[in-house]
Protein 1
Amino acid sequence: MTNDLWGILQNNPDLKEGLDEDTLAVATSGGNSTKRMSIRGGNFHKVINGREVSTIEDNHVEVVIVKMAHNASRTFYEGEYEEGKPVSPTCWATDSKTPDEEVPTPQAKNCNVCEFSVRGSGAGGMGAACKLSWRIAIVLLDDIAGDVMQMVLPATSTFGKEDTGKWPFRPYIQMLANNSVSASNVVTKMQFASDFSIPKLYFSPTAAVESKDVEVVKEQGKSSDAEEAIKMNVYQGNVKKSPFDKPKPIVDENDINTLMDKWGIKTEGD
């Protein structure tokens, strides 16, 4: 059946590849929605399925970090970024060391010898063209049992030195570890640096997680939302594919056939 569908679509080259909002919503209903906290423009924005639903006006917010990726990742985009236009990265590395197998055009065998990972290779000679980032899963202190949100921390918020009792992310976690404290056991204050031209976060501990919330935090860290939040999911909408490649179905073909049998729908040849 899938082969027949693909053949039908090939008969009209004017059809654009991709899913409209309704098809995607129905096909994936019952699954996890994408929830994240953005720091665009120096504010905290709660975004669900690509739509901003609320903004925290303060320059800080208190959260509990329920799960973290174990390493930074890398992403390289060729050309200039256009706001609001999703573009596939040219190269990426989940472990920040070696391009992923799915990368169509790896820029180097290893990231540490890649010309785009060198400081000064970025636009205007600033930073590296290939960007480092770190993914974490958080819950808001005032809604610990609520939404688990992804944060993708840029290198400026991830690496650096302590500044009077507040740290970039990795040094903050190292400080906690040196004191035998797990990140999920403390309330963390995230605040914007006041002396930086682009959004940069500092992290600091403000309190211990209350006893009544300890188990809730543990369960949040085990949730599918938390697992998904720390994964590197790369948009590949504009990656050039062979016309003979067939798309991987979002819904399993066996599930579709089962539903058709249940509804009494017959296909050609039955």
Protein 2
Amino acid sequence: MSVKYTAVQMANPRDIDAEKKWYARAKSVSQDTISTIATAISEDCTPNEEDCLIVVDGIMKQIIACEIFRPFFDKIKQQLPYAYTITYVTIASHNHPSLLHDKLQSLCDEAYDADEIILLYGICGNAIEGLCARTCDMYVPRVHDCFALLCDDNCAEDLQVKNACWRCLSNMDGNDQNKEYASYIESYGKEMADYVMHMLYHEQTLLYVTFHTQKDNENIANLKETHKVEVIEGTLDKLKNILLPKDGQGLLHVRKGNKICCLYDMVEVMKEKSI
């Protein structure tokens, strides 16, 4: 079988002053998913497609995730059919997108033992713009914000249209407004703190993603004292589709040596770009 290739002129790393030479580099002509690879293997051997899928998907994956997803990942991690390591990055890192970008790039570069990287982030204030897949292929959900991975598409669009802020079970501690509220209570007492927060934020819509836990109910009740709260039904379906992919839909595949380019439209969201 012939292999398509392109000619690439490269320098000798041992002698950068030497004349550059031309080398053949294999050229990608199509993209396969884990499922299609398993199907192709099963057609030429005894094991069935499901058995082949277990073997093919048995590669090591490095999951890099916002800490927002910790309690939700814990609910589905037992279903993962592959070996993985997971690293969480603090929610507060969103407050400094450029530093978050550097942190994520560093974690990606350190994934020496991984065959694939799954990045559980949206565009998130442009933090993932230009992230490079230097050690292995990387998969990224095509979403603008972490919020979109915990609710259906209509709710995700509401966040953009209403210019609202959002909260969930894991997105309460360390929030700037919580700190602000706590400082008002310390300085003026709870009654005055409630009044000040109401005057500052009562016109702002806050979307709360609930999974109907006792803690969710407590959070909603507390937030309603100072905010106009709209409760959104949470779902783990999107996280499952990312972590248990069947067809690769909704994921950007960034091949080793390429980078993420953010587009900011509502459909494609981001694309793969050569470095």
Protein 3
Amino acid sequence: MSAYKTLLVEKEGPIDWVTLNRPEALNALNPQLVDELLDYFGGLYMDHSVRIVVLRGAGRAFCAGLDLKDRSNAPGTSSAVSSSPQAGLVGQRRISEIVMRMRRAPQPILSLVHGPACGGGFALALASDIRIAGESARMNAAFIRIGLSACDIGVSYFLPRLVGVSVASELMMTGRFINAARAERVGLVSEVVPDDQLSAAAQPYLEEMLTTSPLGLRLTKECLNMSTDAGSLEAAIAMEDRNQILCAQTDDFKEGISAFLGKRAPDYKNR
């Protein structure tokens, strides 16, 4: 269990189940939740005890985005209302840093999305590595509907890479919602299940990822991130070659080969 106030972290062996825990506010991002997300994701980079993160929301929403009812204007907070452009940029960068830390984290992040996932909540889902949607999921780039640009918190980076420029343009320029069924059709989510089956639906993904070696899984996420922006095929292959040579020098690789030949489950020791 965690000591956070708005974020619940439950450890299940090498898996962290992380719950946005402001159900009375549809898990909207207030300064405290922003700070706790920054702290949690910032600590993952050097934490080898955590292999996978599952991100979800308490109550009837994943995350409704920025809490517009919170009028805190202090510099360094996540407030949408600021006394100056300088203070506003500080707050903006704090929110954006969440998705940066999610991508830097070497652990795969699997998001279970139900109900509204709007604005910043949409960004959290997009910054995850795998998304499973509940039937009630409704996602949108809400920023453009309140007088801002839809390009915020990494949405303009992630969304066209996930669904293509055409669909991304439609969603971002209109702010319209995409429901779970269409999100699955366009490849935004891996599958759609009834809301009450989301945790169960995550289990096969978790079990399969845990059959991989710890180093192999971490390097796979790192290489995927870099290859997405690689300037050439040669650059991507250079990263792949490095990863394979590193993994091939480990005891876990020997164990993986032995387990495969012996037709048994591998017992990786992260060595």
